[in-house]
Automatic annotation (TrEMBL), chain A:
Domain PPM-type phosphatase: 179-465
SUPFAM superfamilies in UniProt: PP2C-like
Gene3D superfamilies xref list: Immunoglobulins, PPM-type phosphatase domain
Pfam families (UniProt xref): PP2C_2
Annotated transmembrane regions: none
Organism: Chitinophaga polysaccharea
UniProt protein name: Serine/threonine protein phosphatase PrpC
Superkingdom field: Bacteria
From TrEMBL, chain B:
SUPFAM superfamilies: vWA-like
Domain VWFA: 5-181
Matching Pfam families: VWA
PROSITE patterns per UniProt: VWFA
InterPro entries per the UniProt record, alphabetical: Tellurite-R_TerY, VWF_A, vWFA_dom_sf
Protein name as catalogued: Uncharacterized protein YegL
Native source organism of the sequence: Chitinophaga polysaccharea
Length: 466, 211
C-alpha cells in the first residue's frame, strides 16, 4: 500500500527510479516514511469524508420537503417518510415549532399529529445529525414550511345589512299558517356569503290562502347574486304572483275549470286532460308574464336595467276538491317543487330545473326570452291527487346542500333523508316539529336552516305544506 | 360542492429574469395568503399555475386552496415567449379539469383566467389560432395583465375581456395588482346568467385599465 503510493507519487512527479530499485526498496521500508504515507492517506480520507458530508448537508438544505397543509380545528396527521426523503443516514432528528401550532411529532412513528390551534405560514425547524458525525457535533438545522389554514367557520362574519338602503329586506324571515286542512311553514335565511359582506338576503317568498275560493298561492324566488337589486326582484316576483291570483282566481272565473275538473275526475279523457292543461298554461302563463312585465315596467320607471332585478321564480296553486287536491305549478330557474305522496313512496317533481353546465348558470323571470322559447310549455305542472304528505318549494340554498345534484331530486330516499334531517337527524340537533306544529314551528325551521355545509353558503328558503 | 377554478398563465420568458420574477413570486405569495383568509375562497377556490417561456410548464395543477402550496417560479436568462403554446396547454387542462353540471355531477363555477406577460407572443400564429378556442371555454372572465414597456396591450386585448397595464413589474405594483386579482376572484363565485361576464372591482391606482 505505502510502497505503491510512493511509487505512484514519484511516477506522477516524473522521478525516475528505474535504476535505483534497491535504494527505493530500502526507502519504502523506513519507519518514518511509512508513517508519513499513512498520515497522507489519512488526511486524504479525512478530506474526502468531510467533502462528502458537506455535500450531503448541502443536498439536504436544498431538498424540497413538502408537508401537507393543516387546518385549524381539524385533526391532522402527516408521516415523514424517511425512506422516501432519502434520510436513512439520519442519526438524530427532532422538530421544533410544532408546539406553537398545536401539533406534536412522534419520533418512533415519524408522525406529526394533533389538532392545530393557530393558523399561519409557519416555519418548522428540523434539527438533525448524520451517521458518522461525532455525537457532540451541534445539530444541523433546516427550515420547512407548514401552512395552517384558518378554520373556515371562524372567517365568516355576520354583518347586518344596511336597513336604510333602498329595498332593504330583513335578514331572516319566517312564517306559519293554516291553509284549510293543510298547514304551511316557511323560513328564509340570509346566506353566510351575504352575511360575510353585509349583503342582503336575495331569496324571498309569499303565500296567501283565499278562504272564499279555497285556493292557496305559494311563491318562492331567488334573486341572482350578481344582480345588485335582486332582493327587490325576488320580492316583486312573489308579490305580483300573489296579487295576480287574488284578482283573477275568483269563483266566477274558475267555474268553467271546476266543471271540467269534475268531469275529469268522474270520467277522465284526453279531452278533459287537454282542457285542464290548457287552463294551467293560460292562467299560470299569464300570471308569470304579467309578473315579468310589472318588474320590467318598474325597472324602466326606476331607470335601471331589468337585469339588475334578475330573480328565479317558482309558484304553485293548491286547492282541495271533493275529488282530491289540485296542484298547479310554474317554474323558471333552478328551484325545485316536490310533491311527496301520502305514504312517502313516491316523489313528483312539479317543474323542470334550469341548470346550466356551470354553477350559477340559470334563467330568470326577468328574461323576456323565456316566454318565447319552445320550452316554455314545459315549465308548467298539473296534478290531481287524492292526498299528499308534503309539498315543498325551495331555493338552491337548500337544494344544493341537501340534494347536491339534480338526479337525487328524483329519489324518494333523498326526500326521506331530508324529512329525517328536519326531524332532528343532524349534527346541530335542530328539530322542526312538523307533526305537531307548535306555535314556534317557523322559528324551529329558521333555526334548522342555519346548518353548516362546507361550500354551501347561499341564501336558503324552504316552504313546507303538509 | 361547487369549485371555482382559477388559472394563472404566467410569462417566465428571459425578460422576466431578475427583479421582476422575484416581485412576481412575492406578489403571488401575498395573494394566496390573502385568499386563505377569505371564507368563501377557502371553501371553493381551486388554483392552477402554468408558466410559459420557451417551454410550457404546469407548475401547479388545479389544486384546492386548502392544500395549495405556492411553488417557486423561476425563469431562464433569455429566450422566446411562447404564449400560443401556453394557451394550447391551458386549453387542454381546462377542458379536462373543469366539471360541467350534469344530473349526477355538480358543475363548477365558470372558471377565471389571469394571463400575465411582459412581452408579446413569439409564436404569433399559434397564439391567434388559439384565441377562439380559449373563448369557447366560457370563462367568467379573462383578465390580461401587460407589465412593463415591452408588453403588448393590443395583442392581449385580442384574447382578454379586460386588459390592465402595469408601468413596471416592481414589487409594489405587482402586489397592488394581485390584491385586485384576489378581489376579482372573490367576485367569481356568485350566481349569474349563463353568459354574462363577472363585474370586476375597480382597479387600484397603479393598475391602468386599457379601454
Amino acid at each position: 500500500m505505502e510502497k505503491s503510493f510512493i511509487r505512484e507519487l514519484f511516477h506522477a512527479q516524473q522521478i525516475d527510479i528505474s535504476n535505483r530499485e534497491q535504494l527505493f526498496e530500502a526507502f519504502v521500508q523506513e519507519e518514518e516514511n511509512l508513517h508519513r504515507v499513512k498520515q497522507i492517506l489519512k488526511n486524504q480520507q479525512f478530506l474526502m469524508d468531510t467533502w462528502q458530508l458537506k455535500s450531503r448537508l448541502a443536498d439536504i438544505q436544498q431538498q424540497t420537503v413538502v408537508i401537507p397543509n393543516a387546518t385549524v380545528g381539524k385533526v391532522y396527521e402527516a408521516r415523514l417518510d424517511f425512506q422516501q426523503l432519502n434520510w436513512t443516514d439520519f442519526a438524530a432528528f427532532s422538530i421544533t415549532g410544532l408546539e406553537a401550532v398545536g401539533l406534536q411529532f412522534d419520533s418512533t412513528t415519524s408522525v406529526i399529529s394533533g389538532t392545530p390551534t393557530q393558523n399561519g405560514d409557519w416555519r418548522l425547524k428540523f434539527s438533525y445529525r448524520l451517521q458518522g458525525e461525532p455525537e457532540e457535533t451541534a445539530l444541523h438545522e433546516k427550515l420547512v414550511a407548514l401552512i395552517v389554514n384558518p378554520d373556515p367557520r371562524s372567517l365568516w362574519k355576520n354583518i347586518s345589512s344596511d336597513n336604510t338602503a333602498p329595498f332593504w329586506r330583513e335578514d331572516n324571515a319566517s312564517a306559519s299558517a293554516v291553509l284549510g286542512d293543510k298547514r304551511l311553514v316557511v323560513a328564509s335565511r340570509r346566506g353566510r356569503s351575504h352575511a360575510n359582506t353585509g349583503g342582503f338576503r336575495d331569496d324571498d317568498f309569499a303565500f296567501r290562502y283565499f278562504p272564499d275560493t279555497g285556493w292557496t298561492v305559494l311563491a318562492v324566488s331567488d334573486g341572482a347574486g350578481s344582480a345588485p337589486l335582486a332582493r327587490e326582484g325576488a320580492r316583486m316576483a312573489c308579490a305580483h304572483i300573489v296579487e295576480y291570483f287574488e284578482q283573477h282566481f275568483t269563483n266566477a272565473a274558475l267555474a268553467p275549470f271546476d266543471a271540467v275538473l269534475a268531469e275529469h275526475a268522474a270520467n277522465p279523457s284526453e279531452t278533459t286532460e287537454k282542457q285542464l292543461t290548457r287552463f294551467v298554461y293560460e292562467q299560470l302563463g299569464k300570471a308569470a308574464f304579467t309578473t315579468h312585465k310589472k318588474i320590467a315596467e318598474f325597472a324602466h320607471n326606476q331607470q335601471v336595467p331589468v337585469k339588475d332585478f334578475h330573480a328565479t321564480l317558482i309558484f304553485a296553486l293548491l286547492k282541495k276538491y271533493p275529488c282530491g287536491y289540485v296542484i298547479m305549478s310554474f317554474g323558471v330557474g333552478d328551484c325545485p317543487i316536490g310533491l311527496l305522496n301520502k305514504d312517502l313512496s313516491a316523489i313528483t317533481l312539479m317543474n323542470r330545473l334550469d341548470v346550466g353546465a356551470f354553477g350559477g348558470g340559470t334563467r330568470f323571470i326577468t328574461m323576456p326570452e323565456i316566454f318565447k322559447s319552445d320550452t316554455f310549455a314545459t315549465r308548467f305542472g298539473f296534478k290531481l291527487v287524492p292526498d299528499f304528505s308534503y309539498l315543498m318549494l325551495m331555493t338552491d340554498g337548500i337544494y344544493d346542500p341537501k340534494f347536491e345534484v339534480e338526479a337525487n331530486l328524483e329519489k324518494v330516499s333523498a326526500w326521506k333523508a331530508l324529512l329525517a334531517d328536519l326531524g332532528g337527524e343532524n349534527k346541530e340537533n335542530a328539530i322542526v316539529e312538523l307533526d305537531t306544529y307548535p306555535p314556534a314551528v317557523a322559528q324551529q325551521l329558521s333555526g334548522w336552516m342555519d346548518f353548516w355545509s362546507p361550500g354551501n353558503h347561499d341564501d336558503r328558503t324552504l316552504m313546507i305544506i303538509s | 360542492m361547487r369549485r371555482l377554478p382559477v388559472y394563472f398563465l404566467l410569462d417566465t420568458s428571459g425578460s422576466m429574469f431578475g427583479e421582476p420574477i422575484q416581485a412576481l413570486n412575492n406578489a403571488l405569495s401575498g395573494m394566496v395568503n390573502t385568499l386563505r383568509m377569505d371564507a368563501q375562497a377557502l371553501d371553493s377556490l381551486w388554483l392552477s399555475i402554468i408558466t410559459f417561456d420557451r417551454d410550457v410548464k404546469e407548475l401547479m395543477p388545479l389544486t384546492e386552496l386548502v392544500s395549495f402550496q405556492l411553488p417557486e417560479i423561476t425563469c431562464p436568462q433569455s429566450g422566446p415567449t411562447h404564449t400560443g403554446s401556453g394557451l394550447e396547454f391551458l386549453h387542454a387542462r381546462v377542458s379536462a379539469d373543469v366539471r360541467k353540471g350534469t344530473p349526477t355531477q355538480k358543475g363548477d363555477w365558470r372558471p377565471l383566467l389571469f394571463i400575465f406577460t411582459d412581452g408579446k407572443p413569439s409564436d404569433l400564429q399559434l397564439y391567434r389560432s388559439m384565441i377562439p378556442k380559449i373563448k369557447e371555454l366560457n370563462f367568467a372572465a379573462i383578465v390580461g395583465c401587460a407589465a412593463g414597456k415591452a408588453a403588448d396591450n393590443e395583442m392581449l386585448r385580442e384574447l382578454a375581456d379586460t386588459v390592465v397595464h402595469l408601468d413596471t413589474a416592481d414589487s409594489a405594483t405587482l402586489k397592488q395588482f394581485f390584491k385586485w386579482v384576489s378581489d376579482t376572484i372573490e367576485q367569481g363565485n356568485k350566481s349569474m346568467g349563463t353568459t354574462s361576464q363577472v363585474v370586476l372591482p375597480p382597479p387600484p391606482q397603479e393598475v391602468n385599465l386599457i379601454i
